[in-house]
Amino acid sequence: MKNPIGYNLDRSPVTAMISSVQNPLIKQIRKLHRTRERQEQNLSLIEGTHLLETALAVNCSLETVCYTEKWQQRQGELAEKLQNQAKRVEIVSPEVLASLATTVNPDGVIATISRHHLHPVPQNPLQLGLVLERLQDPGNLGTIIRTAVATEVQGIWLSLDSVEIDNPKVIRSSAGEWFRSPLVVESDLSALVKKYQAQGVKAIATLPTATKNHWEIDFTRPTLILLGNEGAGLSPQLATLADETVKIPLFGGVESLNVAIATAVILYEARRQLSYSRVD
C-alpha cells in the first residue's frame, strides 16, 4: 500500500487521489449545486480556504473535505487540522476540484457540512434586529449578513420564500460571517414583528414614500428594521405593522439603492447612534 498522505477522522488512511469526475463521491457532492439535492442530502457546500478556516474556528461539523495536492502543500497546517476534524478527507485532481466548485477559479479546497449548522441564537432582549422579506439574490443576502455581523445586529430573520440561506453564493458573499450570524428562517414574519413590538421593540419599515430620512430615526431604542424584496419592496402586510417608516434620500436622478447597500447605510447610522449613546 502507498504511504498515507493523511488520515480520516476514523484514522483510515487517505492514500489515493481521486482523478475521475465520475467517481460516486464526486458525483454526489456535485449534486449539491442544486437546492433540491442540498435538501435531500441535508448537506451544504462551502468553498475556499477562508471559509474552511472560519468553519474550523467555530467548530462547525465537517462531513467531507476535498482538496488538491498543491493546496495541501501550500496549506499544510490547515490540511492537518481538517484531517483531524472532518469525517472524511479526499485528495482530488485539479480537474475534479473544479467540477465540485461553483466558482470560476477555485483555490483548491471544498467541503460539505450539515445543512442545519447551528447559528447563534438571536439575543434577548433585542437592541437591533433585521427582518428580511422575500430576498432573492444570494449575493445581497451574503453581503447583508456580513454587514449585520460587523454592526453587531443581534438577530436576522428571513422569510421562507427568500433565497436559501445555504446557497453557496450566500455563504461566500458573507466572507465567512455566515457561520457567526444569528440567522433564522421564519415562517411568519408578521407574528415575529408583533411579538417584539409587545416587548417594546419598535419596527422601522424602509419605504420610498416615507417622509423621514434614515438619520432622523431614534435607533437608541430597541429596533427591528424591516427590508423587502429587491424589486417589490416590503409587502403591504408587513409595512402596515411598522411604527415608523424611513427612506434614504437619493440625488442625481437615482431611483433606488441595492438592498444590501441600503441595509448598510441604515445599520451604520444605527450603530453610530448607539455608539454615541454609550459614550453619553
Description of the molecule:
The protein is an alpha/beta fold. The protein has eleven helices and 13 strands. The strands form three sheets. It has a six-stranded parallel sheet. It has a five-stranded mixed sheet with strand order 3-6-5-7-4.
The count of strands amounts to: 13
Please give the radius of gyration in angstroms. Answer: 22 Å
Q: Judging from the principal axes of the Cα atoms, what is the shape?
A: elongated
Range of strand content: 15-25%
Encode the helix/strand succession as letters.
Answer: EEEHHEHEHHEHEEHEHEHEEHEH
Secondary structure tally, helices: 11
- Contiguous uncertain segments of 5+ residues: 1-5
Arrangement of strands in the largest sheet: 10-9-8-12-11-13
Largest sheet: 6 strands, parallel
- First-residue to last-residue Cα separation: 69 Å
What share of the residues lie within helices?
Answer: 25-40%
- Average pLDDT works out at 92
Query: Which structural class fits the helix and strand makeup?
Result: alpha/beta
